[in-house]
Specification:
By secondary structure, the chain is an alpha+beta fold. Helices cover 25% and strands 12% of the residues. The protein has one domain. A three-stranded antiparallel β-sheet has the order 2-1-3, with no helix packed on it. Strand 1 (8-11) and strand 2 (19-21) form a beta hairpin. The radius of gyration is 20 Å and the shape is elongated. 4% of the residues are buried.
């Protein structure tokens, strides 16, 4: 798991509440970072943004999907 620039991590300890923002990306990390209090830090949950597909977008998706399936055969 890599830590990308701009990601925010929060301490899971409710008494601490420390936050960090990544200013330089990491090459590779085996796990989430640790806070100075020793607790694991995690990225806060962000609700996904959904949008409705119109007929034109759905048709283009189906064309691309058909091209991928015929290419793998």
């Amino acid at each position: 798991m890599t830590m990308n620039m701009g990601y925010c991590y929060r301490c899971r300890n409710p008494r601490c509440g420390c936050e960090i923002e990544v200013t330089r990306p990491s090459k590779e990390a085996a796990r989430n970072p640790r806070c100075c209090c020793g607790a694991e830090m995690k990225r806060p949950y962000t609700k996904p943004i959904l949008k409705e597909l119109d007929a034109e977008s759905a048709a283009l998706f189906r064309i691309h999907e058909k091209a991928e399936t015929t290419r793998t055969r």
